[in-house]
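User: I'll paste a sequence; please echo it back and then give the predicted structure.

Assistant: Echoing your sequence first, then the prediction.
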Amino acid sequence: MPGGSQSPAIAKALADRGIDPRKTKVMAQMELTEEQALKNMGDTALGIVTSAHYDYNLGSRLNKEFVAAFNAAFKRNPDFFAVGGYDGMHLIYETLKRTAASTDGDALIAAAKGMAWESPRGPMSIDAATATWSRPSTCDGWKRSAASSSTSSSTRSKTSRIR
């Protein structure tokens, strides 16, 4: 489900039906609790558990630098689209270096196999034999009291195939 205006509509629908995510487990993908969606949903988002592959609150040095640079350029926090663009451009740049700027699709895929790099979201790699890529996945349980806006998160591994 996309974020944006649909997220508050989902939260309202849950509330209208008497479903309190603090009492009944409501699990969703990250778009439901993207930063702007959370602002629009307010306290109706409390208790929703999401799974994501990026959170701008990750504490690594590279992510802190990425967030600071992104905020300086765009006056907002980066989201999963931004970090996806960062990683995609990194992969394109590095594969073009490996292929001496050849844009042949098979050559680019061959060059990508076996690559590993540090992303703002953590270590990324592409298996040389299977072309399967691995990235961290952040799981957030929104647990906020009226006086606090803290979240808890942990990292899991997520794999996908690139061809």
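Residues 138-163 have pLDDT under 50 and may be disordered. DSSP finds five helices and six strands in the chain.
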